[in-house]
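TEACHING EXERCISE
Course module: macromolecular assemblies
Task: Read the component lines below, then compare them to the predicted structure of the full complex.
Student: A.B.
Group: 4
Components provided:
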Amino acid sequence: MNILVVLAVVAAFGLLRFGRVSLLVWAGAWWVGIYVLLRFGFTAPIPASVVSLYMGIVSIAILAYVSSSQERRDEISRPLVRFMTDKRYTAFLAATVVAIPALAAANVYVQMNVPLQPPLFSRTVHPASPSEITVHDKKIDLDAGENPFRHLEASSPTEFRTHVENGRKVYYRNCVFCHGDNLAGNGMFVHGLDPIPTNFTDKGTLPMLRETFLFWRIAKGGPGLPEEGGPWDTAMPAWEKFLKEEEMWEAILFLYDSTGQRPRAKEEAAK
Amino acid sequence: MVVSRKLLFLLGPVAGIVMFIAVVWMATVFVGRNEYKDPYRAPAATADSTPRAEGVAAEKDEAEKKAQEKPYAEAEYRRFPVVGSRVAIWAVAQLHLLFAAFVLAVPIFAFIIEAIGYKTGDPRYDRLAHEFSRLLSVSFSLTATFGAFLTFMLIILYPKFTNYLMSVFSPTFLPYVLLFFAEAFFLYTYYYGWGKFHPLVHLGLGLGLNVVGTGIMMIANSWLTFMMSPSGVSSKGALISLTDAIYNYTWMPINVHRFIANIAFGGSIAAAYAAVKFLQAETDEERAHYDWMGYIGNFVAISAFLPLPFAGYWLAKEIYAYSQTLGLTMMGGAFSWLFIIQAVLIGNLFLAANYYLWLGMGRVEGAQPFQRFVKYLLAAIVLCFMIWATPRSIIATVSEVRAMGGSAHPVLGFLGVMSAKNTAVNILILTTFMSFLLYRRTGKVASVTWAKTGHALQLSIFAAAAFVVIFLGVYGYFVEASVRIGLSVPQVGAVLLAMVSITAIDIFLFRKPRNTGAVRWGRIPAISQYVLIFIAVTFTWLMGLMGYVRSGLRQHWHVYGIIRDNSPDAFTPTLGFATEVVSVTVLAFFLLIGFVFWIASLHDRPDFERGQSL
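Instructor-supplied answer key:
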């Protein structure tokens, strides 16, 4: 968080709380304050699409608040009606009438005056896997299948560690260049890639997926992605062309072991 | 000659249609002038005779002969003109479902209201239930008509697939038809027998109507859930066990989800009907009656709406259990963005429901002190709404992704997962419940001796429930997915327990309250009525949207993993296109429901008399 921005906004809200301001000013100040907080309050900036979504919610909520009782409706409309009908404000009113389209035009200018960027694609993080794939002439059931080495974790820990170590070697020989030496999706090739590689340390990625899903993504890579829900413009190779089936399962063991995460367990039906 | 307003009203659209036809015709004429025309040729008789005529005759004979020899081949698919088969079947199925939901919802709503009326002895409830059940007979006909339409469309457009479904479920069709007869019997006896039987006998008829209606729904649900999570058949589709085919993974979750949703839907439509009547009302008495009707409808809708997300979670869990692929397609893949749209709509529904209650405080004298809590409730709602609507897969430009350090935001990424969203929805429910309790307190003060203790106890239960929900939500980040999903049960349990216990305390707390202000029904701003209409439209739109998600998840399968969809429509449409189809269908539904309301309103009109103007 940008502490200075957050403190400034909190201080402004504090002043509003103790100062006697009209409801109109209060509503406007809260709208602006929340916008500033969302736009500049975070060290890693929030993408514009999410800011728009949040501000839409905030706008509706503020409108709901100022119109939720007769007193508030009167309080909010009184200065507006006065502004539009009182002769003293004619010049300001005229300026406002000019300012509204001017602001709209300025917004268009700001929106257009940005450096050239690749087109925006909405993409989903986890594409849907098929229920079965064929790797090295062997059918792998992605729905019911399991990592063939996972059961060793409980039955033979030493053997399990050997497979994890094998997975480590597979990772550092093949995956490290894109996914990074700390598995955070920041390898040396990352600056040339769009979208950037998956960050395995993110707690919202590996634990959400079953190992068979990862196996599919590794074995089939970008070329094996489904057509539904594209565009899948990824540089992930189809590793089945370079690795044995065991090596891919071992790399998966390493990913979970190294990040301290657990794979998603199979759901049990309630019926 | 004086032309009546009604005649003018009729003439307007007629003149519009005539003018439109005239314009199209004139445009055709003008365009036709520039088109290519064959040059003049001498009549065939005057031209030199050529072998052409004989050739044409021979060709015709050959074509006829070929036609006669053509073997009978069963069509796999037929094409619906202009919009294609998928959109056609989608729209008809959706309309059928919306009307079916309405026809099931009205009796549930009427039965609940009539039962309250019987218990309390307040005749207003009986009048409300009777008024609403007037909509039943026309809706029943429309539902049956759309059902027949859907069946014909399935047979025409997807004959082979329909044949397969018939072969699996043929034993369920006769009971279905018999239940339909029983539904007709109960429905008409219930409506026409209003006030003709002992109230308990009439309530019994209402109960019978609901039981039969639910039975019909459950049979139909078995067909559609089988398409999604088939069981009881071999991998080639041959039937092994009909019981397993019916009782498949998603059958019971869909039954429960639809039953609860129907109550919410019926209540919201009743409230929207009251809202329209309120806006049309000319006297204070009418306004008071329809304001009260809207309030009751909305109360029933929101009460049923509160447990609905949990039924949805159960359904989603069963989908994951059936197939990881289906689960990922739904929550992480092509359909995940529809859940963000869903979150925005449900968030708006919660906000609207609370807003209606806050506006409703205005109709009670001396409710001002409670208004000061509104901003805190609103803050909680906005925060939960924002968390729920936070997408896991954010739309971002390349530079934004780089600035975030990955496709997930380091802070917001935590809000895009289930732990945060479950917590948000539970707190939203608690907040809405609190708004309702505050509304209940307007105009009266608890007079029991233990009032202070009671209030403190209620507040403590609230705080404890909120603590449990937030604690489990945070704990969910530190455990694996299967445990995390399990945590939603105690979260829901805490909220439901809080709601039940607080309501129980409230009933005793306000047993003989001291009244501090009267409820002035009808004294509510018009905007509140638009909120009720908004809630009804949003409910309907949500049903359409989530229905599409459930059905579309199968992607290129008629029966998932067993019968492949080989038609030209076997692709997943874009989100924009899907929402357009849903919107058009919802619009068509409201036009038709408006027609139903209009027919029902004819009952109250005076009879036409000779000499009366048109």
